[in-house]
């Protein structure tokens, strides 16, 4: 293991081609899925916070529950939809980067929505009342509220990215772990460990830990910055 660790550091220091390709796959898949999850999750979280409609409490509770949804369950659900026998099988998405992004977006959506909802409702009610008194329009009220909740919204996005960068179930089931195409850090780490190639596995583990640490440090910095 000592030799494997030294070899792992050598792979990282030498920017091994396969290591870089796998890392880039993980990062770009996670960035695309986080962006897509935020694109849909932020407006939906705002709607839940401002809206008053039947089923609102149920939707909120459901989203909180889905935050802990196992990745293999998401993988199975999306697989059934995009496989050849599924309703979207004709698009040929299975075992492609697009399939991974779709699955990861499903993981990100409830996290971003729930955290944005919590951030928005935590804004002082006095702000909204003051804006209403001053005759502000609803879009203006929403915008000012979002500005007040911007730290919480940023935290929601970072939490979504942290969730998908280290997931394995969706990437394995929907991407197929295809070398140079859909292989990610987590799926490659599992494969290389099974093969006994501990050098590459350790290098991937180190890079993944660095990325996870970076996300957590950014999260902590964001939260501390929000405190008075």
Report how far the terminal alpha carbons are from each other: 47 Å
- The overall strand count is 0
Radius of gyration equals 20 Å
For this structure, what is the CATH homologous superfamily? MetI-like
* Low-pLDDT segments, ≥5 res: none
Number of discrete domains:
1
Structural class: mainly alpha
Question: Quick check: average pLDDT?
Answer: 88
Shape: globular
The fraction of residues assigned to DSSP E strands is under 5%
User: Considering DSSP H and I runs of 4 or more, what fraction of the residues is helical?
Assistant: over 70%
Report the order of strands and helices: HHHHHHHHHHH
CATH class: Mainly Alpha
Largest sheet: none
CATH arch. level architecture: Orthogonal Bundle
CATH topology: MetI-like fold
Our count of helices gives 11
Summary of the model, kept short:
This protein has helices at 2-13, 17-50, 56-66, 71-82, 97-121, 125-133, 138-148, 150-165, 169-175, 185-195, 198-226. It has 228 residues and is mostly helical.
Structure, explained:
The protein is mainly alpha-helical and 228 residues long. The protein has one domain (2-226): MetI-like (MetI-like fold, Orthogonal Bundle), CATH 1.10.3720.10. 78% of the residues lie in helices and 0% in strands. The protein is built from eleven helices and no strands. It has helices at residues 2-13, 17-50, 56-66, 71-82, 97-121, 125-133, 138-148, 150-165, 169-175, 185-195, 198-226. Helix 8 runs antiparallel to helix 11 (198-226). The longest helix is centred in the N-terminal third of the chain and has 34 residues, at 17-50.
């Amino acid at each position: 293991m000592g030799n494997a660790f030294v070899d792992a550091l050598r792979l990282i220091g030498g920017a091994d081609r396969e290591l870089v390709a796998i890392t880039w796959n993980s990062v770009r898949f996670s960035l695309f899925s986080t962006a897509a999850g935020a694109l849909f999750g932020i407006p939906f979280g705002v709607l839940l916070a401002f809206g008053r409609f039947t089923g609102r409490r149920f939707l909120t509770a459901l989203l909180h529950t889905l935050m802990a949804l196992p990745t293999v369950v998401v993988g199975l659900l999306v697989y059934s939809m995009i496989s050849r026998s599924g309703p979207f099988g004709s698009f040929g998405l299975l075992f492609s980067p697009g399939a991974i992004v779709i699955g990861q977006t499903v993981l990100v959506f409830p996290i971003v929505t729930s955290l944005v909802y919590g951030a928005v409702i935590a804004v002082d009610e006095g702000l909204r009342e003051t804006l209403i008194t001053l005759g502000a329009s609803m879009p203006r009220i929403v915008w000012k509220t979002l500005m007040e909740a911007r730290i919480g919204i940023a935290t929601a996005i970072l939490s979504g990215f942290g969730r998908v960068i280290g997931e394995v179930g969706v990437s394995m089931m929907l991407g197929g772990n295809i070398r140079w195409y859909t292989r990610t850090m987590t799926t490659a780490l599992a494969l290389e460990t099974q093969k006994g190639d501990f050098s590459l596995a350790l290098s991937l583990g180190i890079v993944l830990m660095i990325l996870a640490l970076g996300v957590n440090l950014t999260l902590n910095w964001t939260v501390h910055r929000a405190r008075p």
